[in-house]
Amino acid sequence: MIQIMNIYKYFGDTPAVNGIQFTVQDGEIYGLLGPNGSGKTTMMKIMVGLLPPTKGKLLIDGKVHNPVAIKEMVGYVPESPILYESLTPYELFNLVGKIRKMGSHLESKVNNLVRAFEIEKYCNQLVGTLSFGTKQKVSIITALMHDPRILILDEAMNGLDPKSARILREILITFKKEGKTIVFSTHILPLAEMMCDRMGVIHKGKLITEGTVSQLKEVAHEKNLEDVFLKLTESKKDIKEILDAIKGV
Amino acid sequence: MLDFIKILYKELQYRMLKQNPEITDENLEKELKKASNIKSAIALGSFFCVVPGLLLFTTFLRSDTINVSSLLVSLAVMSLLFSLVSTATQSSFIVVRGVFDPLKVLPIDHGTLYLSGLLAISIAPVLFIALPGLVYVLVKYPLSGILATLWVLTGIFAGHTLGLFAFSVVGLKIRHKPGRKGILGTLTNVLAFALYIGSFLVMMRIANTEAFAEFIGEYPLVYPFSVATVFEPLKSTALLGEHVIIFVVVYVVSLKKLWNIIVEPQYVSEPGGITQFHTSLGNDITALSVKDFRILFKQTSLLVGFLAPVTSVLVLFFIIPSEEGFIEPGTIIPLFLVGIIAAATSSVSLILDGTSIDFLRMLPLKKRRFALSKAVTVMIFPVVFSFLYVVFFTLYDREVLYFLPYAFAFPVISSLLAMAYYFRYPRDEVGIPKSSWGKVIMLTCSVVLLLGLAGLPVVVIGGLSGYVVGYVCSGGIILVLLWWFMKA
User: Is the entire prediction scored with pTM above 0.95?
Assistant: First the structure.
């Protein structure tokens, strides 16, 4: 279980996260929604132990952990793949496996995931020569290979072909069934609707609402998630004004 | 142009600060303002360069015109060398940090001109090494002094040009050719570069001898010997013009070639076919160090930067024993120097990861484990070089074998101390601590002190007991340093 307790994050004087509080239970898929620049990625980086919060606490199973301990428990896929471009995927997996002290089951885990995402023929090429989608698959494998009990995915479906996206979805469902905790952000609202048990909407660094899809629809008095999202983030009116302005041009 | 260089310099500093774990998100802006001040960066670099310049100045005081000519050749070589090594290594660091990536999509023909401008900030201080000597010549022989100044400036420009040329030829290819062939190609490039630098060092070493003065007289057309013509103004001016024209042409050609390569990096990759994944032997530290060497061997320019400091003292391996004979102090000096220089390569090892350091930050990696892996990376080549040195000279004198433990101990102490020094910041976060002139000087002093402690018993006590005490001291120092790395 992850508990986000009144977390603030400032970059200089600028607040990126402004007193956010929510809980994600074991065996739950929690979606973080929000417009660009709302603070989702910063929030996720805090959850992964990449950024220290300016104020507030992050509890995992009721305890505060140091960043290294958090990273041992978590698998993280950043919004764009950060990898060693002059290594091959196999060299990279070996490095990750050694740092995570994976031991004997490293080989079978990696080989299974490589087969699942169908990247066998790219595994002896430099990462720098791979397409964005293949890099994203490599990034996902590095996050999944140690069988993490918490998975944080920041727009992980970016660049994936439909088949790989489906495989990732199935993997997430399996993880959920195994009682693991999953937090993911996406701009693909139908995907969020399909996958998430609950979701929170972040806007201007604050969690403006959270709940199940039906609860959000009820709060916003809207029938589909896109309208809920636009209404809650006060974007609906903006869109109308912008479209009118474009017509005027 | 200047505004653009300022922006790029600020961007470079920003990217370095973002990777520096000593900088928090809260004080980033303040630190960035301080770090992006170009004037203070040049002033600080110049201050540190003027000190050795003043030491060189004293040699000018007791010299006649023939010796002044030889000394000016030394200054010219030194300026060229500093500028060459600085350009060849710094350019890869700048490009690896991705500073030019946003420019790639813009309609710019010669973006490398900005790279050249950026490098000028770190190269400019070298003039201050030569300055005290040049001032002496300017005051005593004004016309020759002006020519000498122009020659030194030409030397700096030539070094910069040759550095860019070397970078464009061997530097930017990212190779991945399975098998020995690729590694051999990379090593050949690096050795060629090291020999090139070594030839200048040999010149510097013998520049003050009378035999060299005669030698210079026979080859006045070739830089740096042509610098000795400053007392023949007409001849010197003509030669200067000739050299400037040649280097300007090479400069323009190199810039153009380099920009094309930056826009489209050359990946020399031959897929190794479909294979199963197999894990390797070793632990996280060896895996991280192997990763460093993989990057080094695939990106030749980084290997050049990594090996340049160590290869630059290799020439002493042959000069010192042949001059001093195999007496103890003479034999230990090259080992001692390699140990000191090993610390200098530590700053190069820190930037190998480039922007990919963020990948390691996502993993449960402790700072001290990462630092230890970097120390391993740094110590390998110096240990191998020192080991070969001892083995080679043991063929001439078996007593040299007594120094074998030092071939291991000096680089190990030096690299462990360097990493403990860089990674002593309080947070347990993996990152790239920033190196600075002040830090390098402090580190060098500490390394000299510790290596002195380890090696002094051999010289002071002498005999077998001297060696035993020396080995025990070395072992003790290594254990204390390792204890720091193993601490939780």
Answer: no
